[in-house]
Amino acid sequence: MSSPSIPIYKSLFDLPREEYFAPGHGLCAGCLVGPIVRILLKVAGPNTIVVTPTGCLEVSTTLYPYTSWRVPWIHVAFENAAAVASGIEAAIKSLQKKSVIDSSRKINVIAIGGDGGTVDIGFQALSGMLERGHRVMYVLYDNEAYMNTGIQRSGATPIMAWTTTTPIGKVLKGKLQTKKPIAEIVAAHRVPYVATANPAYYIDMANKFRKGLLVDGPSFIHVIQPCTTGWRFDPRYGIKISRLATETAMWINWELENNEVFRVTVPVPKRKHVKHYLRAQGRFAHLTDEDINVIQKYVDKEVERINKLVGKEVIGPVVE
Amino acid sequence: MDIWERIPLTSNYAAAYAAKDADIDVVAAYPITPQTPVVEKVAEFIANGELNAEMIHVESEHSALSACIGASATGARTFTATSSQGLELMHEMLYIASGMRLPIVMAIAARALSAPINIWCDYSDMFATRDSSWITMIASTAQEVYDSIIQAYKVAENPEVLLPSMVVYDGFIMSHTYEPVNVAKDRAPILEYIPKNYSRPRLDPDNPITFGAIADPNWYYEFKYQQVIAMKNAYEVLSKADEEFGKRFGRSYGFVETYRIDDAETAIVTYGGLYGTVREVVDILREKGAKVGGIKIRVFRPFPHKELVDSVKNVKHLIVLDRAISFGGALEGPMAMEILTTLRLRSIDVDLYNYIVGIGQRSVTELDIINIYYHASKLIEKGVRLTESIYWGVRE
Amino acid sequence: MSGEKRLSGWKSMSIGGMILEPGNFVKRPTGDWRIFRPIINHDKCIRCLICWIACPEPAINIMDKPYRTATGKEWKFSLEVDYNFCKGCGLCVEECPVKAIDFVEEVK
Lengths: 320, 396, 108
Known about the structure:
The structure holds three protein chains of three kinds.
Chain A: H1 33-44, E1 48-51, H2 56-61, E2 62-63, E3 66-67, E4 73-74, H3 81-97, E5 108-114, H4 115-120, H5 123-132, E6 137-142, H6 182-187, E7 193-197, H7 202-214, E8 219-224, H8 238-247, E9 254-257, E10 261-264, H9 275-278, H10 289-310
Parallel strand pairs in A: 1-4, 1-5, 5-6, 6-8, 7-8
Antiparallel strand pairs in A: 2-3, 7-9, 9-10
Chain B: E1 4-9, H1 11-21, E2 26-28, H2 36-47, E3 54-56, H3 61-73, E4 78-82, H4 84-89, H5 91-99, E5 105-110, H6 124-127, E6 135-138, H7 142-156, E7 165-170, E8 179-184, H8 188-193, E9 210-211, H9 220-249, E10 256-259, E11 266-270, H10 274-287, E12 292-297, E13 299-301, H11 305-311, E14 317-322, H12 334-345, E15 351-356, H13 366-382, E16 390-391
Parallel strand pairs in B: 2-3, 2-4, 4-5, 5-7, 6-7, 11-12, 11-14, 14-15, 15-16
Antiparallel strand pairs in B: 1-8, 6-13, 10-12
Helix pairs in contact in B: 1-2, 1-7, 3-5, 7-9, 10-13
Chain C: E1 36-40, H1 50-54, E2 60-63, E3 67-68, E4 74-75, E5 78-81, H2 91-95, E6 101-105
Antiparallel strand pairs in C: 1-6, 2-5, 3-4
């Protein structure tokens, strides 16, 4: 039952058919957390324990007496998913040493948290877990605001975005600060595997989950999760907007292995102008053309930096 | 066969030895004065191979109890320790640990709460956990700390209970004072008393359970009531656990301890290390012909109404020494409030005089307690009943 | 409130809010959320599985049902929408590379 190696996925046909996530839950229609978690659990398999902090995923999928989870699952509080996951990982280690759990059995411990519970209130616990080196995979589903409590800004909200606590008024318009670069902060902890992923690129994301589960130590996968309710777009366009995030290089899919090998796993030889991404979302409806150009400049700078890191032009110029 | 060896230990070290002899699986703790030696000693045991446990060097007390919750939910026997601000930082997790019905055991070296910051002993940190649904025992000797932690596992892990438990003792006064303690030479007899049992519901891929779902207004009340029943069961279970401990190991403590109470007209009531001083004072006052006795409250939650009522059956006046303040409370000494309520609910008319002492480890000597006794005696003589707590020794 | 099924009490409920039956949310269909319903055209469908993986519920199942299209193409399986759970989000409609899914207004 326990297989230490998972084959590389080449197409959707390679993904296991079993569903460890049951329908009937209360996620918004079109919520991309659905496919993210389904794919994650298909890759991880049934020998998995999931920890979720308070947030959209937890609240919608477990409402006593109903649950969507077909793997052991625990929710404790908002800021401590990483600490709880540390406890679970240590308990498994201890019980395996004492032969209560079969020591040859590899049990995945996965924390799946939102940006609220990871980047802000959950930051301390995350950093502690990374420093201690627990064999836990942390998947961050980033919808760029505290969506569960009604779209308030978080440290992961991008600059100029509308949220209920960064509203568009006469004096202030949207979030004033840039997005906290959480994946880079995690990478600075020098853990064995850090990656960013995008649900529009299913196979790339599945392979990153796979790599994360294979390392002997902490791994972190930062997944963009466009939110139909909070970003203000028709639910049917979720994957399309997600794809635009990468096509405009506002979201770059990369991975860092052992703090040595850095790759951009979804190269974008011909880039789209950020306006295609921003104008598709209601939360950016107030942006002027000038604002959009400011954002384009940020992105251009970031693209330059990434290309330099990789050593070649993996993300090309804006052509459209 | 003598299974004990008698060694000098502080209450902190006694707590660590108890965790070792209970063969804990996981410990997650963060240092804070005056609890630090507990964590250090446990780390030593693990480093020497005397204790086969995983130690998680968490980055805060909140994460300490969170990690214990994760570990306990996976089925591990877990342990932690803290004091004061640490206990406050993990406060929300106390309710979650008990709400999730996890048998975690925690040692508390009682220390005053900030602000201002004071690292010395008083019981304000313990009383702040009053409603968190943790079984709470207060020890008066290092031996009692060791024994109570072992009893704590017995009652916490009982399937009729499944509530976390804490054992509290004086910070510094007890935590750092050496006393002779009998510890097990080998943990086998202890494990016969508290065998490991991994059959309670836990996070197990072979049997996927969801822990920590939302319970809306249609359900939450019933879950809390289950805890109420668990606490009531704990009363019975702890009583039996203490009895069995006595039979196996020759030491038992009960819920309330009395000293020279049989013909006492006045009883001095307290808890923790101060009880030792109270017993000395009772002896001194008895020499002078006073009909006085001592009462110690050992179990705070579940509150031992039966034993308390029994202990005061012949007593007319109670002097309750509290080492914490419930600001603006009906009575500002929290233990006095529990005692008074217990008695008055049963129409037992014992007059109660509440003295606040030892705040922030302000010294409480035998002379202080003797003076308190005479102060109370004057009031008793005049037939004056107090409706407020007296703050003994506060400077104007 | 009258006529509602009586909920169980503290004696029979599992302790601590634990849910012992995995995935039992399937007992609570969400099909009534829909305003529009997706209808898969099995003739146009190229069985790429994109709709299956994009669905958040999941409400699209891979059915081992062989199918012969009007032009004589043989498929060993088909994709079917589970209308008990489909919330009508339209992700499948939008993502289908050959536009084989129609999005039709629910008529009560």
